[in-house]
Amino acid sequence: MQEEALFLAIGGKVEDSISGKMFGKLCFKVGKKAFTFLYGKEMVFKLTGEVHQEALSLDGTQLFDPSGKNRPMKEWVQVPYDYKDRWEEWAEESAKYVRTL
Predict the structure, then answer these.
(1) Residues in contact with 66: Cβ distance below 8 Å, sequence separation at least 6, in sequence order
(2) If we measure between CA atoms, which residue out of 32, 63, 60, 59 comes closest to residue 47?
(3) CA 58, CA 21: separation in Å to the nearest integer?
(4) Rounded mean pLDDT of the chain?
(5) Taking every pair of C-alpha atoms in the chain, what is the biggest distance, in angstroms?
């Protein structure tokens, strides 16, 4: 799957990142805190501020709702493969944010 290969390449580039699992899916963490994971053909990023707003403004992006019961996770943005050219940028921003928590 090309999405998985791209996800692994991007996550592996982030300084001090380690791979793991979140919601049973592949993820990358900084320390013990996840900053991105692969959900189907989409990457999900923990974002805040202007970067969060910018990502959500793009067609097809949405807040991640793992339950499917209209209870989205406020900081986690699910980004379609259509925006794969921006995934690396958002992974870096997400890791940077998680390091502050």
Answers:
(1) 23, 73
(2) 63
(3) 27
(4) 95
(5) 35
Tokens, residue 66? 């793992």
Query: Can you list the domains of the chain with their CATH numbers?
Result: 2-99 (3.90.1150.30)
pLDDT, tens digit, 9 for 90 and up, residues 14-32: 999 999 998 888 999 999 9
Closest CA relative to residue 44, chosen from 77, 66, 82: 77
pLDDT band at 72; cut points 50, 70, 90 = very high
pLDDT (tens digit, 9 = 90+) per residue, 30-52? 999 999 999 999 999 999 999 99
Looking at this protein, which amino acid is placed at residue 25? K
Distance, C-alpha 24 to centroid of its chain: 14
What residue type is 12 in one-letter code? G
Question: Residue 39: helix, strand or coil by DSSP?
Answer: strand
